[in-house]
Amino acid sequence: MIRISPQIQFQKKLLSSIQPALYLLWGITLMILAIIPVLIYKSRTWPLLWDAAVFHYMAWLITEGAVPYRDIFDVQFPGTYIVHLFIINLFGGGDVAWRVFDLSCLVIIDALIILFCRPFGKLAVFIGVALFSAFHLYNGPLYTGQRDYYLIMFIIAGMYFVARHIENSKFKPHLLVVGGVFLGAAVSIKPYAGLLCLVLLAIVFFFAVRGGLKWLKPLILFTVSASLVPGLLMLWLWVIGGLQPFFDILFNYLLPFYSKFTFQPFTETVLRSFSGFPSFEIIIVATIALVNIVINKELRPRRMLLLTGMLYGFFHFIFQGRNSYQLYPFVFFAFLIVASWSHDITRKIPGLLKCIMFLILLHCCLLALYRSSSTLVAPPLFHITNSKCKENLVQDLHGRVSSGDTVQVMDTISGGIYALYAMRYKQPTRFLYDAPFFHDRESDYIQNLRNEFLHDLKTRPPLYFVLSKRSWPINGYERLDTFPELREWLSENYILDIERGGYRLYRVK
Predict the structure, then answer these.
(1) Which residues pair with 464 in a beta bridge?
(2) Where in the chain are the domains?
(3) Contact call for residues 428 and 419 (beta carbons, < 8 A)
(4) What is the dihedral of CA 269, 271, 273, 275, to 10 degrees?
(5) What is the model's pTM?
(6) Contact (Cβ atoms closer than 8 angstroms) between residue 267 and residue 279
(7) In sequence order, what are the beta bridge partners of 368?
(8) In 3-state terms, what secondary structure has residue 494?
(9) Distance CA 118, CA 219 (A)
(10) CATH 3.30.70: does it fit domain 384-508?
(11) What distance in Å separates the CA atoms of residue 52 and residue 59, rounded to the nearest whole number?
(12) Nearest-CA neighbor of 502 among 388, 424, 405?
């Protein structure tokens, strides 16, 4: 009698359980996909909030002739303005237009997930689309249209064309050029994407040498094409007079000051609350993804690109202020890596690896099902204070500001700038928010910004002055005590007209 070893018996049991496991994943995924249209419908009333409202206001100012950085003090890269100019010109500037743009981005990202994950099989495609779509919708309106969200659209498009180039046995220059242009567009929005471009350049070089192809030409093509969009935007700034102020803000403010602010650490708490991933699971995902590249030759370039994207997403978060929405690229590629495992668990790989892959897959799908279904019952929160402040300020200022008069807002995230955008009111200074005045006050550069702000207020005094209670990096009206020159000028020339829970409205005497 032939005895079968326990290891072989385990392998046979594992193989016999794969099909039911796949049916289970299919069932959960289809339930998530069935909920997504309902979530989309319920999201139709989500308002324009937070950063997006500020960027809309900047884009409107540009259409009115303002030059970025010279007439608008801001730390964003110019690609952000182009995106919001595109939105308000194509879709419009209201809440409905913002929802159309946000959902259009989701459709495009899902289409690119389909293209990128198609070699991993249909289940991987459906899981990838379901996980990310549900994730974006159940997190609520606070994360709609964030730069870190629509940035994914350019990154995954660029990586798809780079993957196509690597997988092709012949040199296809157009694939590298298109991929480079998309990735360059990402750099113009978030410069950290330049790190990803450098890693992808090394990957292109690696596969060219490995395949016995000439490597210099693809490297030059990719570099030039990735530099195209940033180069054009720098040319645009130079022509309109915004290049020198851009470099001034970049090197004298953004890098030495703004870049050192940290809001949230990369901890289990942040990951779990935002994505549902505990830290130890993230480590397992990254480890298995690396092992998968080594032991599984099939589709190796795409696996390598997914892992590269996930690692980039980690540094994308670490190098910034570490707001939770800056985890978007990291979570996106983690989802795609996990989704690709639905293809791997049917192949000849170690049984223990299959078990771990399936359990993480099951966890992600169940979590997405739970959170998306819970959102149907209890809608996600949004920044009610932001929206209420905007509505109140619009009501307080409506009909009281004549053409040619201005309103100065000292605000960052409370909705005051959104109110100015809604009424199309301009400010007398280039400072749209007050954050630059209340950190590193001992610095000569910050003192110069304060002096410029005060000089412009004295030269072109606004009809109304709005001081929000909630700002950043210092909250409360007491922050004016750290800017005594402004406090004294305000008390001498303005009277308190209206005080609400979120702001004080001063009128010129």
Answers:
(1) 407, 507
(2) 1-43+262-376, 46-93+146-250, 384-508
(3) no
(4) -170
(5) 0.89
(6) yes
(7) none
(8) strand
(9) 27
(10) no
(11) 10
(12) 388
